[in-house]
Design a protein that fits this description.
mainly alpha, 2 domains, two-stranded antiparallel ribbon, 11 helices, globular, disordered C terminus
């Protein structure tokens, strides 16, 4: 892929990202994350605790959260864990709490799937049924929760190995701290790239090849690493955490989720644009139908053609009004009769 082709993809991705109102979808994700944060943290610790033990898993998760969104975010997670560890309920209350826990943990992923449906221009088939659709969506969402817990477990194992390696070679190599720090950054990049790629492959109700999701996953992982640095810089030089008082930790978490969700949706838009133009195309899954055909978007096409021909979008628009701009396919074809370019 040439730099010019990559620039074309980025410009159309930004247009589609803005067209689908990703900022509004990210705000909805942040809202649902408030109610899903506690269940997600508890489930993640349960999975990681199988290998490391509950106490070690808690310390590591608090440390990882602190490295991502600062000490105020880590305080919020620590408060959740302390409240969850108070076991003074009956068996029936515990069972009800478990069901509520699982339901809450899948809420944010259900919202994520609905956002991806809009990005990919698909919707579930009406004949799927309300009950069946609800069960299928929750099963998929819970599977994603387990997958995230597994990737967290891998990340914790790698961090433990690097920590042990650092102590072992500390007396032989004086520059090991910098080298291991770089290693942690690289490993974190690939772990998040796998997580994003898995999300872009599994969540959308479309059939997309694995080769179409890796580049979008890499872009999202890079943007997440960059945002981690910028958010830390912003929070370190602002009073946002103290301005809101006791709610400061919650505001910090909301801010981080909001920005991360926008990055997630930008990568999803890039994946669907790449798949449509250079990959396996957009094909709905067995239980979905296309409701928004993005294969011929006039405004997006004007942007793409302006980059291809090195002319301004205004000139391309004038040509389009004359009917001189063909449908964006590999070979120029006459536009279908039901598509009118005005």
């Amino acid at each position: 892929m040439t730099p010019k082709t990559f620039l074309i993809l980025l410009r159309e991705t930004f247009f589609q990202w803005n067209r689908d109102r990703a900022s509004r979808m990210a705000a909805a994700m942040a809202y649902y994350a408030v109610f899903s944060l506690a269940p997600l943290v508890i489930i993640s610790i349960t999975i990681a605790g199988i290998v490391f033990g509950q106490d070690s898993a808690r310390r590591e998760i608090i440390f990882q959260v602190g490295s991502l969104i600062g000490p105020r975010g880590a305080e919020a997670v620590q408060s959740i864990l302390e409240n969850a560890s108070q076991d003074n309920t009956t068996a029936i209350a515990s069972l009800i709490g478990l069901v509520t826990l699982l339901y809450g943990a899948t809420g944010v992923f259900t919202q994520l799937q609905e956002a991806f449906d809009q990005i990919w221009g698909v919707a579930p088939k009406p004949e799927r049924g309300l009950v069946r659709g609800f069960i299928e969506d929750r099963i998929l969402s819970f599977s994603l929760v387990v997958a995230i817990g597994f990737l967290l477990l891998v990340s914790l194992i790698v961090s433990a190995l690097l920590s042990g390696l650092s102590r072992y070679i500390g007396g032989f190599i004086t520059e090991q701290e910098t080298a291991l720090r770089v290693g942690e950054i690289v490993i974190s990049f690939f772990v998040f790239m796998m997580l994003f790629a898995l999300t872009y492959k599994v969540v959308p109700r479309v059939k997309v090849a694995w080769r179409d999701v890796w580049l979008g996953g890499a872009i999202s992982s890079f943007l997440l690493s960059l945002s981690k640095f910028l958010i830390g810089l912003y929070l370190g030089n602002s009073s946002i955490a103290t301005t809101y008082g006791a709610a400061g930790s919650l505001v910090v978490v909301l801010l981080w989720v909001y920005i991360s969700a926008q990055i997630l949706f930008f990568g999803a838009e890039f994946t669907q644009v790449y798949a449509r133009r250079h990959g396996s195309q957009i094909r709905p899954s067995a239980g979905a139908v296309i409701v928004d055909d993005k294969s011929f978007d006039r405004k997006a096409f004007e942007i793409v053609e302006s980059v291809k021909e090195d002319i301004s979008p205004e000139e391309v628009k004038a040509e389009a009004e004359k009917g001189a701009v063909p449908k964006p396919t590999d070979k120029p074809e006459q536009a279908p009769e039901d598509v009118q370019i005005t």
